[in-house]
Amino acid sequence: MINNTIAVVRGGGDLASGVAHALHKSGFKVLILEVAQPKAIRRKVSFAQAVFDGHTIVEDVKAVKAVTKQDIEALWNQGCIPVCVDPEASLLKEVKADVVIDALLAKKNIGMRRDMAPITIALGPGFQAGKDVDIVIETNRGHNLGRLIYDGYAESNTGIPGSIKGYTEERVLRAPRDGQIRTVLNIGDEVKKGEIICYIDNEPVQAAIDGIIRGLIMNNLQVTKDGKIGDIDPRGIREYCFTISDKARTIGGAVLEAILSAQKS
Fold first, then answer.
1. What is the reported pTM?
2. What is the CATH number of the domain that holds 109?
3. Would the pLDDT of 4 be above 80?
4. Which residues, including other chains, have CB under 8 Å from residue 163's CB and lie 6 or more apart?
């Protein structure tokens, strides 16, 4: 049954990619829908990067940019994940999805409907399980991370980044103004407190802590004031920049459980 199951994932950021990776490795036909200029932070583990580069690989799984249904079918036959620019999910009219997963993590519902597929799943706050979608997956770190919610909502957005070695907001890079990002350092680079990582127009963005740059959005993209543009990992382990996170793996497993339990019922 799994080999013929089509799972459409809205979004190609790091958590969405953790889901897509888990489903692909489990034998699902996975299709990712993205926007024209994704602002994924953890680009090295985000299938969204295929929108810019034409293709990308995350932990031995290849994703390739596609346009038509024929492209999608061909890539599935090649063992790849197709990535399409389709924020409105219009391809659902042509691709008969068995499952649609909203992994945009917008903290609100952006066009997700329960009638999009026989099984609908959403990650995080902004959705009511049993109304907007069939199942909501908890994304807040802690005891309930990955919990399947069949009635009600996930925990509200705290606005506070998860703690790593005691650092929360200090490890997040935010744009000091609206403008265009110009990167100086790259993902995987070591950084010291006070070092310039990038510029927004001519305004520098400096590291608030020592560590390794784990995430940084694409060079030359337009950003908005206070928007997240990168993050620093104080653990200093470079490998973490290029591998799927514990959180993404947990959520990927939860989505797999949700699909299999829904198919069984």
1. 0.94
2. 3.40.50
3. yes
4. none
Phi-psi region of 237 (alpha: psi -120 to 50; beta: other; left: phi over 0): beta
Residue 2's pLDDT is 64
Q: How far is CA 103 from CA 12, 118, 176, 213, in A?
A: 8, 17, 27, 24
Residue tagged 């659902």 (tokens): 92
Examine the domain organization and report whether 125 and 256 are in the same domain: yes
Among 210, 161, 215, residue whose Cα is nearest residue 183? 215
Which ranges of 130-245 does DSSP label H, i.e. alpha helix?
none
- Cβ pair 186, 44 in contact under 8 A: no
Q: What does the block give as tokens for 99?
A: 């499952």
Same-domain check for residues 116 and 87: yes
- Distance (Å, rounded) from C-alpha 53 to C-alpha 81? 14
Whether residue 1 has pLDDT greater than 70? no
- Residue-wise over 109-138: b if at least 16 C-beta within 10 A, else e? beebebebbebbbbbbbbbbbeebbbbbbb
β-bridge mates for residue 7, sequence order: 30, 99
